[in-house]
Design brief:
The structure is a single chain. By secondary structure, the chain is of the alpha+beta class. Helix content is 20%, strand content 29%. The strands form three sheets. Strands 1, 2, 3, 4, 5, 6, 7 and 8 form an eight-stranded antiparallel sheet that branches. Strands 10-9-11-15 form a four-stranded antiparallel sheet. A three-stranded antiparallel sheet has the order 12-13-14, with no helix packed on it. The radius of gyration is 24 Å and the shape is elongated.
Length: 361
């Protein structure tokens, strides 16, 4: 019986050790998968930003397209179709440094509680990569394309590469002024806004609160987009994203191609959005499963600039934050009991060439 109990004790200890190892590996897999999903989504949208079918975004005729959008507060139709980089908040790529409220306006969300303070916001505008009914147009083509006719309230862009382009609502195709001589192409129009929300599943009111996610609100990467019915909707991309920061690569002299990374606020102050050629995104993911077996301490730096947000998770003490105003790490009073992982990706904005040349004179 004694030998049996000893063997049983060893087996139980082995089982507990294996289970702990499995949980640690599972937590790491969870974090890596979340980071992969976040980076894939952000990377695709960034690479598409400022694509206008061969045109410069500053020259796209927005016409009356703004009136076709049911905006939300400051995120109005005029804001959604603001393609000119000379206008504050306009252009294919624009960002906001994290603060206490959602920008471009706190009333863009149903509640101020739905924005995670101290995290950055990225706004992207572009035409879809898949053209609809390419070729010479006559009569109502490509307005007769099923993709367009089935979404009469959706915004599209029709373009003659190198000549002209215009935004329009699906039910009101602009006339072909070329007389059917030149090729015109139609593309779906997109607006993407990426930000963090304090919770994954909102409460009964549709907002984040202390009761969200079964009493432990989990920060989540959100995607606000322009839907096919002309409304702005927000959808969760992946949960467990604790912090999100963007830095923007600016070329001050097109002849040297030297890139300097700056925060959104610094780029805005200098009026350099037309000169942005790349975006550096820094992401920190956190596992919501508490692991008190070891203190998961570490320092997480989001960016390379001297002003980059950096915070240290300390064992048994409050986190140490540097340049992370208004931000509170996940975990409540015990943030060191949660596994974290971070990553950084740099995305080249492949559609910014025309704007760079124009900005550089």
């Amino acid at each position: 019986m004694v030998i049996g109990l000893l063997v049983l004790g060893v087996l139980i200890d082995l089982f507990i050790s294996n289970r702990r190892a499995y949980q640690v590996q599972s937590n790491n897999n969870f974090l890596q998968e979340n980071l992969r999903i976040a980076s894939d989504q952000l990377g695709w949208s960034l690479r598409m930003s400022d694509f206008w079918g061969g045109q410069n975004g500053n020259t796209v005729n927005t016409g009356s397209a703004a009136s076709a959008i049911t905006g939300i507060g400051a995120c109005s139709g005029n804001w959604a179709t603001s393609l000119n980089t000379a206008i504050g908040g306009g252009g294919g790529v624009y960002g906001f440094t994290g603060g206490t409220s959602f920008q471009p306006g706190s009333n863009c969300l149903s509640s101020t509680a739905n924005y995670l303070s101290g995290t950055d916001i990225l706004v992207l505008r572009y035409a879809d990569s898949q053209g609809l009914s390419p070729g010479p147009l006559s009569a109502n083509t490509p307005a007769t394309a099923s993709t367009i006719s089935s979404h009469p309230n959706q915004l599209f862009m029709v373009t003659i590469p190198g000549v002209s382009s215009q935004l329009y609502q699906g039910k009101s195709m602009p006339p072909d002024t070329s007389g059917g001589v030149q090729h015109r192409y139609a593309y779906a129009y997109h607006v993407d806004v990426y930000y963090l929300r304090p919770c994954s599943v909102a409460d009964s009111s549709g907002n984040c609160s202390a009761s969200s996610d079964n009493g432990t609100p989990l920060p989540t990467l959100m995607h606000m987009r322009l839907a096919s019915d002309g409304t702005l909707v927000s959808e969760a991309v992946v949960d467990g994203i604790e912090q999100l920061k963007f830095e923007y690569g600016v070329i001050l002299d097109p002849t040297t191609n030297v890139v300097t990374y700056k925060s959104a606020s610094d780029v805005s102050t200098a009026g350099q959005w037309p000169m942005v050629v790349s975006v550096r995104a820094s992401i920190v993911a956190v596992n919501p499963t508490r692991d008190p077996t070891v203190p998961h301490t570490g320092t997480y730096t989001l960016g390379a600039a001297s002003s980059a947000c950096s915070y240290t998770i300390n064992a048994g003490a409050a986190p140490t934050l540097t340049n992370c105003a208004n931000f509170t790490p996940y975990g409540g009073s015990t943030p060191w009991q949660f596994v974290r992982s971070n990553m950084q990706l740099v995305v080249q904005l492949r559609n910014r060439y025309l704007n760079i040349v124009q900005a550089g004179g």
